[in-house]
Design goal:
heterodimer, A: mainly alpha, 79% helix, elongated, B: alpha+beta, five-stranded antiparallel sheet, 13 helices
C-alpha cells in the first residue's frame, strides 16, 4: 500500500464496491485510517506529494461518489423489496408450503 | 377411498411430488448457464384430507408446479440501470472518438485537428514576423502557408465530425429492426403467457420475456407496466406505447433534414428516444447534441478568424499599393457568409502573397501597421456574427374582423429562438393599423462605448418611425438625451455629408440642438450608424423597448391593393447592437390578391433556422481565438470525463444488482437477507473509505502548501 498512489486506491475502492467485496472495502477502510494517522507527522515533501496525489485523484473520487450514490439507490430498492417479501411471507395467501408443514398436521404414518 | 389404496396413494403422491421436485432441481442445474433463466422452486399443495372410518387423515402433498424465483421490482431496477449504462457507453464511445480528433498526435508528421491550437499561434505569429520586414517575400509566403495549415486542420476536423455523425446515424438506424424484433417477441410471449398461465408464474415463458425486456432496455429506454393475467405493456420512458398485451407497435425510421428520425405511427419520437436511454439514446445524444455542439464551436472559430482577418486585410494596403474594393477583395480566407458550415468551408483563397496588406490604408508598402493589427487579433476577442434574420408574415385581413395577429418564431445566429408578433387592427374600411413586437432581446451593452446601427429598407427608403433615444455628453458637462425624430414614410436615410442630408441631417440637427457632443451619425449602404466618440465623450444607447416595436398604418384601395405606404413595407432592421447577441431584421411584405377588405399575403411565412442565418461580423467581449479553442477542448474533456464517471457508476450499479439478483435466485429469504446484509456492509465500509479519503485529501491539499504548515 505504501507505493500505491491515492488515485489507484480510490479506483480500487470503486471496483470493490461494484463487486460488493465487503472484505476488501473493510481492508481499504483500515488502510485509509492508517494513512490518516500518518498524515499529521508527515514531512513537508511527503505532504506536498500527497497534495499532488489528491489533485490527481479528484476524478476517481468523483466516480467513487457516483458509485456510492448508485449503491445507496440500489440498497433502498433492496430494502423495500425485502420488506415486501417478508410481508408476503407473513400475510400472503398463496405461498408454497413445505414437507414439514404438510406432514406434521395431517400425516398418517 | 379404501384404506390401503389411500395409503398407497398418499405414498405415491409424496414420491411423485419428490420426483417432480427433483425434476425442477435438474432443470435448474441444466439451465444454470442459460442467459435469463430464473431458478425455479417447487410449489407444494396440501391435498384434501381423507375420511377413513369417520376419522380425518391427511393426504400428503402434491407438487403443483414451479415458481420462478424472479422479482419484477429488482428486474425492473436492473433493466433501468442497464439502459442508462448502455446509453452512457454508446455516448462515451462516440465522445472518445471526438476527443481523439482534437488530441495532438506527437508521432505524426502531418498537421491534424489536434494541432489547431499550435496552428492558431503559428498563424498570428507569422504576422508578428512580418511586422519586422513587411516587404519580405518569404515572410509573406509564410503567412499564407500557416493560414493554409490552420484552415486545413479546421476544415478536416469539421469533415471528420460530419463523418462521425453519419456513422452514428447509421448505428442509430440499425437499432430499429432489433427493437421491432424484440417488441414483437414480447407481444407473442404475452399472448402465450396469458393463455397458458394467467394466474401463476409462467416459468420459461416469463424468463424469455424478461430476457427480451432486458435486451430491449439495452437498446432504448422503456417502462414496463404489468397488466391483468400476467400481461405486460411496454412504453418508451416518455410513454409512447410499444407493446400492449399481444400487440406491438413498430418503430420506423425516416430521413428528416438529412438525419434519421424515429416514428411510432406518425408520431416522431426521436427526442423522446434521445433522452430515454439505451444504446439508441446514447447514439442520438452524441449525434444530435455532442457533435453539433463541437461543430458549432469550430464554426464560430472559423467564422471569427476568417471574417476578422479578411476585414483587416481588405482595409490595408498590399505590396502593389492596392486596397481592397468590391471588385478586388483582398481576402486571405474564403469569406464566410454565415456561421454554420464555416469550419468545413474554411480555406485560403489568396494565392499571391503580395496581396497581404501589411501596410495601413493609404500608407506606403513599407509600412507595417496593418500587420501589427492582424498580429494583435491573437489577443483580441474572437469576432462573432451579428445576425440579421429575415422572415415574412402571412396574414389574412378580413374587414369583418376587428383584429388579426400573426405570431412567428425567429432565430438568431446562435440558434436561439424568439417569438415575434404582428398585430393588425381594423380602423374601419380598408385601413388597418399594424404593430410589430419582438422580444426585448436587443439591449445595448452600455458598458461598451460603441455604435448602434439601424438598417433601413432596400433603396434606403425609410417607411416607419423608429423610436430611438440617444444620450450623450453635453459640451458644458453632464449628459443630454434626445428622442430621435420620427421617420416619415418614404424619407431617405440620407448621408453624413457634410452637409448631411435626409434623416441623418434631421438627427444631426436634433443632437446639435440638445448640445450633445461626441456623437456622430453616418449612413453606409443603408445602415444608419450612431456612434459615440469615446467612452468618456458619451455613449450611445438605444431605447430597447421602443426600438423593438414598430407601428404604422396600412391603407388598401377598393381592390385590396396597398396604397399607403406607397410601396410595400420593406422592413425595419435592428442590427449591430453592441451586445451582438441577437439582432433581428423584420422584413415583411403585403400584397393584394383578394377582394376589398380581404387581403391575403402571397409571401408565405418563412421561418429560418439558426443554421440558415446570415450576418455581419462584429466584435464581442469574448475570448481570444486561442482562448476560445482552449475552452472548447477543455469543455469537451470535461464532458467526456463526466460521461465516463456516469458510465463507471452505472456499470457498477448493474454489477451490484446482478449480484443481488443471483443471490435472490439461490432460494430462501435467509439467503436473501444475507445478500442484502452484504450490500449494506459494503456500503457502510465504502462510506468509511470515502469519508476518510475525503478528509485525507482535504488535509493534504491544505498542508501541501508552505504557508499553511503550522
Amino acid at each position: 500500500m505504501e507505493d500505491q498512489e491515492l488515485k489507484e486506491l480510490v479506483s480500487e475502492a470503486s471496483h470493490a464496491l461494484a463487486r460488493l467485496d465487503t472484505r476488501r472495502l473493510e481492508e481499504l477502510a483500515l488502510c485509509c485510517r492508517s494513512l490518516n494517522r500518518e498524515l499529521a507527522p508527515a514531512g513537508f515533501r511527503k505532504r506536498v506529494d500527497l497534495a499532488r496525489q489528491s489533485r490527481e485523484a479528484a476524478e476517481e473520487m468523483a466516480v467513487f461518489a457516483r458509485v456510492m450514490e448508485a449503491t445507496r439507490a440500489n440498497l433502498d430498492v433492496m430494502r423495500r423489496l425485502h420488506e415486501l417479501r417478508t410481508g408476503q411471507l407473513e400475510y400472503g395467501q398463496a405461498q408454497p408450503r413445505h414437507w414439514a408443514d404438510a406432514e406434521s398436521g395431517h400425516g398418517n404414518h | 377411498m379404501g384404506t390401503i389404496s389411500s395409503a398407497f396413494d398418499l405414498i405415491s403422491g409424496a414420491l411423485n411430488a419428490d420426483q417432480s421436485a427433483l425434476s425442477i432441481v435438474a432443470n435448474n442445474v441444466a439451465n444454470a448457464n442459460t442467459p435469463g433463466y430464473t431458478e425455479e422452486t417447487p410449489n407444494w399443495q396440501e391435498n384434501d384430507p381423507v375420511q377413513i372410518n369417520g376419522v380425518q387423515y391427511g393426504d400428503g402433498v402434491t407438487e403443483t408446479g414451479a415458481t420462478s424465483l424472479r422479482d419484477t421490482v429488482l428486474s425492473a431496477r436492473l433493466d433501468q440501470q442497464q439502459q442508462m449504462a448502455s446509453a452512457s457507453s454508446a455516448r462515451l464511445t462516440a465522445l472518445d472518438s471526438v476527443q481523439a480528433l482534437f488530441t495532438p498526435d506527437s508521432g505524426s508528421s502531418s498537421s491534424t485537428a489536434g494541432d489547431i491550437g499550435n496552428d492558431l499561434t503559428g498563424f498570428f505569429s507569422s504576422f508578428t514576423s512580418l511586422e519586422a520586414e513587411p516587404t519580405n517575400a518569404s515572410l509573406r509566403e509564410e503567412v499564407l502557408t500557416s493560414a493554409s495549415t490552420l484552415a486545413g486542420d479546421i476544415s478536416n476536423a469539421a469533415a471528420s465530425l460530419n463523418t462521425q455523425r453519419s456513422a452514428l446515424d447509421e448505428e442509430a438506424s440499425g437499432v430499429t429492426s432489433q427493437v421491432n424484433a424484440l417488441t414483437s417477441s414480447i407481444a407473442q410471449l404475452n399472448q402465450q403467457i396469458q393463455s397458458t398461465s394467467p394466474n401463476a408464474d409462467a416459468g420459461t415463458l416469463e424468463d424469455q420475456r424478461q430476457e427480451d425486456l432486458s435486451q430491449l432496455s439495452q437498446l432504448i429506454g422503456i417502462n414496463q407496466v404489468k397488466t391483468e393475467n400476467n400481461g405486460l405493456s411496454v412504453t418508451t420512458t416518455s410513454g409512447q406505447l410499444l407493446v400492449s398485451e399481444n400487440s406491438s407497435f413498430q418503430l420506423t425510421s425516416g430521413s428528416v433534414s438529412g438525419v434519421t428520425h424515429f416514428f411510432v405511427g406518425t408520431a416522431d419520437i426521436t427526442s423522446q428516444l434521445t433522452s430515454g436511454g439505451g444504446e439508441l439514446g446514447g447514439y442520438l445524444t452524441a449525434r444530435d447534441q455532442d457533435i453539433p455542439s463541437a461543430l458549432s464551436s469550430l464554426d464560430q472559430l472559423a467564422y471569427g478568424i476568417s471574417a476578422s482577418v479578411n476585414q483587416l486585410n481588405n482595409t490595408g494596403t498590399d505590396m502593389d499599393g492596392n486596397t481592397g474594393t468590391a471588385a478586388n477583395l483582398l481576402y486571405i480566407f474564403n469569406e464566410p457568409t454565415q456561421v454554420a458550415g464555416s469550419a468545413l468551408a474554411m480555406s485560403v483563397t489568396m494565392t499571391d502573397p503580395n496581396q497581404i496588406a501589411a501596410a495601413g490604408a493609404g500608407l506606403g508598402t513599407g509600412d507595417n501597421s496593418n500587420a501589427v493589427a492582424m498580429a494583435k487579433l491573437a489577443s483580441e476577442s474572437l469576432m462573432q456574427p451579428i445576425a440579421t434574420t429575415a422572415f415574412s408574415v402571412s396574414q389574412n385581413l378580413n374587414a369583418s374582423s376587428p383584429s388579426a395577429t400573426s405570431s412567428l418564431e425567429v432565430y438568431d445566429t446562435l440558434g436561439n429562438s424568439y417569438n415575434a408578433a404582428v398585430t393588425y387592427t381594423n380602423q374601419g374600411g380598408s385601413t388597418w393599423d399594424y404593430s410589430i413586437s419582438v422580444p426585448d432581446v436587443l439591449t445595448a451593452n452600455t458598458s461598451v462605448s460603441g455604435s448602434v446601427s439601424y438598417r433601413f429598407g432596400t433603396g434606403e427608403t425609410v417607411n416607419q418611425g423608429t423610436n430611438l433615444t440617444i444620450t450623450g455628453n453635453l459640451a458644458g458637462g453632464g449628459t443630454g438625451t434626445i428622442t430621435a425624430p420620427t421617420v416619415t414614410s418614404g424619407e431617405a436615410v440620407g448621408t453624413a455629408g457634410p452637409p448631411s442630408t435626409g434623416y441623418v441631417a434631421a438627427l444631426d440637427a436634433q443632437i446639435a440642438a440638445a448640445g450633445i457632443t461626441g456623437v456622430s451619425v453616418s449612413n453606409t449602404g443603408g445602415v444608419l450608424t450612431i456612434s459615440g466618440a469615446t467612452g468618456t465623450a458619451g455613449s450611445v444607447i438605444a431605447d430597447p423597448a421602443a426600438s423593438a416595436n414598430a407601428t404604422g398604418t396600412l391603407t388598401f384601395n377598393a381592390s385590396g391593393a396597398l396604397v399607403s405606404p406607397a410601396a410595400n413595407v420593406a422592413g425595419i432592421t435592428f442590427s449591430g447592437l453592441s451586445d451582438g447577441a441577437s439582432a433581428l431584421n423584420l422584413d415583411w411584405n403585403l400584397h393584394s390578391t383578394g377582394s376589398a377588405g380581404n387581403i391575403t399575403e402571397t409571401a408565405a411565412a418563412s421561418l429560418q433556422s439558426g443554421a440558415s442565418q446570415t450576418g455581419t461580423a462584429g466584435v464581442t467581449n469574448g475570448p481570444t481565438p486561442t482562448g476560445f479553442f482552449s475552452n472548447f477542448v477543455s469543455t469537451l474533456g470535461a464532458t467526456v470525463s463526466g460521461v465516463q464517471a456516469e458510465n463507471t457508476a452505472q456499470n457498477a450499479s448493474v454489477t451490484q444488482l446482478q449480484t443481488q439478483n443471483n443471490a435472490l435466485s439461490e432460494v430462501n429469504l435467509n439467503d436473501e437477507a444475507s445478500a442484502m446484509s452484504t450490500l449494506e456492509r459494503s456500503y457502510q465500509a465504502a462510506s468509511q473509505v470515502f469519508t476518510m479519503l475525503n478528509t485525507i485529501m482535504e488535509s493534504a491539499l491544505n498542508l501541501g502548501t508552505e504557508t499553511t504548515v503550522s
